[in-house]
Amino acid sequence: MDRTYWENYYKKHSFPAPPSLFAEFVSREHLNPGMHLIELGCGNGRDSVFFARNGVSVRGLDQVEAEIEFLNGKYAHENLEFVAGDFTRLVPSGTCDCVYSRFTLHSVSEEDELRVLKWAHSVLNERGLFCIEVRSVNDPKLQDGDRISPHENVVDGHYRRYFDLEKFKDRLIGHGLKIVFAEERTGFAPYGSEDPPVVRVVAQK
Ligand SMILES: C[S@@+](CC[C@H](N)C(=O)[O-])C[C@H]1O[C@@H](n2cnc3c(N)ncnc32)[C@H](O)[C@@H]1O
User: How many Å separate Cα 125 from the centre of its chain?
Assistant: First the structure.
């Protein structure tokens, strides 16, 4: 159901918008030119394009094939490539310095998330970073739509699974990662009139 939602969304929002505040934070605090980064769920590529313009080699993954094709045509550059596919089914191959995931892990099941954590640990170089921003259990949106569990709902056909910061930190640690930054607050991802508390974590191998 979510795939159709995003296919329709990018028909109207195909061009990269300005980068997210999270991308600016990660770039400022943690990235250097020449690093290799994989973005999970790059959408219209706004953060991938921003990282690449700052000298980082980027591979952006998303399930929306038409958008990936559009981005590859528009942003063909030696340090930027877009690949279509399901980021929960990745097979480890090669390594990278950073796995970046913004507003994507809350749209997959817990089982799929665990597969992603395992994959991220296996592809990260020593001291490589896994940077994640996701919706929180304290987000008022959890009260909307159809509640399918204490921390999952479906709003207008759009599935979301809201994150508990402490539990998520424990899961990352359980997958061999060290927490270097973890905070939940408003101001991380304001959108229009909305500014919900959002979970932001940087973990290191
Ligand atoms: C909320 S958007 C975020 C886009 C981008 N990260 C940003 O912050 O602008 C979620 C994106 O994740 C993608 N996505 C969700 N589940 C996916 C999956 N299993 N595999 C690949 N892409 C997925 C959707 O197609 C969508 O583009």
Answer: 19
